[in-house]
Structure formats: structure tokens, C-alpha cells
């Protein structure tokens, strides 16, 4: 396959400037993230516009706002930049060995996986394991991962899956939340504040259904990690699974 014309191979610096502007929403924040001046970020984006021959930003006073097309372009190149970064990191830290890039859930990684990696590292010193948190399903074609450890259904695009294990959940809360008396039935919990984990939006509905409470109206606070929801339960903010 012949190499792409130079016009379609922009500099990494210009692409990083555009990606940071899209991700962070302002030239100031992008400049801080890239350790550049605001003027340097603006010049990189302008040079990218000139090279591609299409407008990428809308100038609103002193602000630069990406066009919808540029925002889509930034999303496309973000995965490529991540792949370049990870490939360079692997070459630097482990030039003679292989690597395994895993996307993991934070609590599983911290509580179960990481404590078991030291034995693997002793037996396979040639392999570097890179762990990155991902809370939601993604497409492996656009993300730089070899595998993901995730909770939920196995319907990811273009991926095969293997069930590792089931789990059992129990409703827990701080004793102070039950000053009005301990619940006698599952539906009694509907009178208490319920805490939800972002990665399992149907958890409470499924729990109530298993206890014979169908079509329960489940509301409450949402948290993105188990470590946070655990602290919320400990401090009496509600009932967690």
C-alpha cells in the first residue's frame, strides 16, 4: 500500500493540541495539559487547519471552539494517539519482552487482580502488564487493549468472552440508618435511600425482582466506583448492594 500523502499525516504535536482542546474544552486547559503556552496551542491548531485545508475551530471572541467535524476527527485520532503512547512506553520499559494491555474495573483491579500479579511477574518477568480503568464497554478495534475484565453481558462488538465467575450481592447499610426498625421484607428497603453503582444500573431492580418485588420504582444516588459507594454506605447515606 503506498504511503499516504504528506497532507494527511499531520505532526503529532498538532494532533495532540487538537485532541486536548476537544477533551478539555479550552485553550488554557489544553496548554496546561500539554505544558505549552496558549499561543503555542493556537498555532498548532492553525497549522493543522492549513495542512488539512478545512476549518477546525470557530473563534468566539478569545475562545476557540471545535467545529462538529473537528470534534469527530479528534475522537477518531484519540485512539491512535493512545496506541502510539502505549507502544512507545512498552518499547521503553520492556524492549525485549511482550506486554498485555488490560482494561479493568477499578475495585476488581485493586482488591483482586493487583494482589495476585506479583506471582505472575516472578514467573514471567519478560511480560509487562499494563492496567487501565474502563467503566463501560468499548470497541476493541478503536482502543489499544488486548482484553477487558468487565461485569455484565457478553455482547461487545467484535469480541469473544469467557465467564470468570458469578457473584452474590447483599444489601448493606450503617446501623444508624435503621433507627426506625430493621426491615422485615425486601420491599421495606424502598422506604430507605438506595445507593446505585454507575456500572450496574439495573442491580437494584434485579435484586428486588429476585425477592419477589416486581416493577419496583427504584431511585437514589449514583456513584461511579465501589470504593465511593462503600464509604457512602458506611457514613449512613443509604443502602448499597
Explained architecture:
By secondary structure, the protein is α/β, with parallel strands linked by helices. It folds into three domains: 6-78, Arc Repressor Mutant, subunit A; 97-166, Periplasmic binding protein-like II (D-Maltodextrin-Binding Protein, domain 2, 3-Layer(aba) Sandwich), CATH 3.40.190; 175-234, no CATH class. Helices cover 39% and strands 12% of the residues. The chain has eight helices and seven strands. The strands form three sheets. Strands 4-3-5 form a three-stranded parallel sheet. Strand 1 (57-60) and strand 2 (63-66) form a beta hairpin. The protein is globular and about 70 Å long. The N and C termini lie far apart (54 Å). The relative contact order is 0.09. The model has no long low-confidence stretch (mean pLDDT 86).
Name the CATH superfamily assignment of the largest domain: Winged helix-like DNA-binding domain superfamily/Winged helix DNA-binding domain
Major sheet size, sense and barrel closure: 3 strands, parallel
CATH fold annotation of the largest domain:
Arc Repressor Mutant, subunit A
β-strand percent reads 5-15%
List the helices and strands and how they pair.
Layout: H1 12-24, H2 27-34, H3 38-52, E1 57-60, E2 63-66, H4 68-93, E3 98-104, H5 106-113, H6 117-123, E4 127-133, E5 147-148, E6 195-197, H7 203-210, E7 221-223, H8 226-234
Parallel strand pairs: 3-4, 3-5, 6-7
Antiparallel strand pairs: 1-2
